[in-house]
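User: Can you predict the 3D structure of AraC family transcriptional regulator? Sequence below.
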Amino acid sequence: MNAGPLDPDSVARSAFVLAVRHDALDQPWRSMRRAQFVQVTEGVLAVHTENGLWVAPSHHAVWMLPGVLHRMSSAAPVVLRILYADEDALSMPARCCVMAVNGLMDELLGAASQFDASAPADAEQLRLLAVIADRVPRLTEVALSLIYPRDLRARHIADALAADPARAGVLDDFAEQASITARTAARLFSKETELTFGQWRQQLRLLTALMRLGSGASVTQVALEVGYSDVSSFIAVFKDALGETPARFFR
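Assistant: Sure. Here are the predicted structure tokens for AraC family transcriptional regulator:
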């Protein structure tokens, strides 16, 4: 497994894969000159930018565009395979996103992670990387992201909820504290996040729950922590988003 002191930005290749394991992760803010396709093979990874949050559980990956200031975090052990690629090395999605990783891509990235990225690539490695570059854009995007509003007043509301996802109240309550009308706040959330305020709060709770469940917390505990008094309602929302109950998803 590749890990340790190798600086990805110093590698001469146009595309390569590194595998790393962290007992926990609280990465400082940084930007990379290459795009990153960060596959999670164990655990749950959160990727934060100045204006968004992406959460990838096992069998998923976060796609990060080059030059985007970000940090990665995980409260529990996490195992990653990271594909680094120059802009001309593969066809990139237009925005950062979370993708489901199928069995073929898992095998391809696993094989590529065994190569020594500090050495020149031979013909076998180049063929494998070409297949990866061909397959990555075909993966399915999954709705495990959250864009924050840019307007400072609406951002005040978003930050208050992010600090306490279980916080009760209707939009009028939050808007008053942010010195904005509820109507204007609702318009800003829809325009700048492409979600209504209610949808935005539900997505925040889902992503927070994913991170907490990934750290080993119980379903009941997490449901209460993110604002559900009825555990069955939380399970229904989780299943609707991810296709399985929390117990089956993290089995």
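Residues 13 and 189 are 41 Å apart (CA to CA). The mean pLDDT is 93.
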